[in-house]
Amino acid sequence: MLEQRDLLNHPLAGPFWQAASEGKLVICTCATCEVDIWYPKERCDHCNQEAGWRELEGRARLLSWTVVERALNPNFAVPYIPALVEPLDAPGVQLVTWIKTDFRDELVCDMVGHVAFDVIRTMDGKEYRAPYFEPASQQGA
Amino acid sequence: MQQSLAQLRKKAGAHDWGAAADLEDISGEVAIVGVGETAFTGASHRNNKAMALEAIEAALQDAEIPPDSVDGLMVSFGIAEQLNPQDYRDHFGTAQDIWFSDQGGAMIWAATCAHDAAMAIRAKQASVIVNVFAVDWASGRQQGSASPGDWHASESLKAALEMPFGWHPQPLYFATFMRRHMHEFGTTEEQLAAVPMTFRQHANSHPGAKLREKALSLEAYLDQPMIADPFRVADCCLISDGAGAFVMTSTEQARDRPKPPVVVAGVGRGMIEGAPYISQQKRLTATPQTFSAPWAYAMADITAKDLDVIGVYDCFSGTALMQIEDMGLCQKGAGGEFAARGNLHFQRTRSQGGIPCNTHGGLLAHAYVLGISHVIELVRQVRGEATNQVEGVEVAAYAGFTAEESSTLVLRRDA
Fold it and tell me: ipTM of this model?
C-alpha cells in the first residue's frame, strides 16, 4: 500500500520532480487561460487544452507547518517539519514542502522565505532533490 | 411543506471555496427506530461481519423488529470489509429481497444515509432499512494489515506531492491546520485542551467508553509529548474494533414502534473545491461543515440556536473545534475560548450558553467507530435515555467528516 511510484515518471507530477532535480520550482499552468492548475491535471478545466508548466522565482509565504515528534510515518526520522507554503508569484497555489529543523524556533505563519533544494529519501529508498522552505530570518521576517 | 432545491439553495447560501450537495428535502419522512452497538475494544481479532451482525441484532431488538422484516441494508464502501445482503440472510436464516446501498456506514455517510433511505422508502424500494458500520482497525494496526491512512496513501497525487515530504497520515494534516487556527485566532493550547478534557469527562461516566477509567487533567494533558504539534496523544482519536447499527423506517411506520421515533429533520452534505486535496483547501481553518450545516438547518427549518445537543466527528480535537464553529454554535475562531468556558459539557445546556457535545466521549475517548456511535448517542439523547442525559432535548445534530467532505444530520423528537 505504501509504495512510492518513481516520482520522475509520475504521469502528472513527473515534471515537478524533474525540474526539482535541476533545482527549479515549477507548477502546472495553462498558458492560454493564464491560470495555474494545482494539483496538476492533463488538461485545463477552462479551455481543455493540454496543460503546461511554468517556473517560479522561488519566494513563498509560510501558511502553516507541524513539527512531527512521533514517527507516524516510518520513513521519516523525527523530529521533522512538513509545511504548506504559497509561492508569492502563484497566489492560490499551496505547495506541500518541508523545513529543516534548525529553523523550528523561528517559524511564524505568513513569514516569507525562499525555496531551496536538498535531497529527500522516499518510501522505496530512492533519493530525490526536493524543494524546501527556508525562512528569511536574517532579514528580520 | 416540502421545500424545492432552489429554496434550500437560497436559504443555505453560497460560498467561494466549496458547496453543499443538492440533497432533496426529506424532512420528517423517516425516523430512527432502533440502535445497537457491540462492545468497543482494542485489538480483539473479531470479524468485521460478525461485529456488524451483532450490532444489527441489538438494533433490531431495540426496535422490536424481527430480522425478516428488514428489506434494506446500507454499508460503507471501501472502508474495511462490510456486510452484504447474503451475509444478512445467511446469519438470520431469512430469504427476503434486500435493497442494498454502499453509500451508508459512518463518517459523512452516517448522516447522508438517512437522506438516501428516505429516497428509497419514497420510491418503495424498501421500508425497513438498516445502516451498519464495523471496523477492526485496532486489530489491523496490531497486524500491520490495515490503517486509517491507507486511503490517503493510495491516492496518486497525495503519494507524489505530499508523502515525499512526510505530510501523511491524517494527524499531520489537521495539526498543520490547527497551527494556522492558533495563528489567525489566538487559540491557545489550554483552550484546545478543553475539547479532549470535556469529551473525556463524558467518557468517564459512560459505560462502554474505552477510556472510562482514565481521567484527563489539564496538567496531564500539557505533560503529554507532542505527536505533531499542536496535537498531543489526547488530541487524536483512538483506534478501535467495534460496530454500530441503526434502523430507519418511514415516520408513520415508526409511530407503531414501542420507543418514540427520532425523526430525521434535515440532512446536508458539503465538499471543498479541489477535493480530495485538502492541502489545496482555501480556508485552512474551516471545514466543509460550513456548507453542510446550513443546508441541513434549512431543510429542518431551524437555526443553530435550536440545537440542544450535538455529536461532532472528532478525529482530532482541532477538527471538532473547527466544525463546532462552522455549525454556527459560536463565532468563527472563538471555538477555543468557547470550549475552555466548559460549554461542551453535557450539563451546560443551551439556556446556560453551552452546547453539549459528544456526550458519549466521541472518537477521542469513547471509541473510534467513525461516527456511527455519535448518531446512536444522539438517538438516545432525543429519547431521553442517554447516560449523560442532557435536559430537555428536542433537537440534536450530528456533524460527519471525511476531510474534504462534511455532512450534517438534524434529528428531533416526534411532534
Answer: 0.94
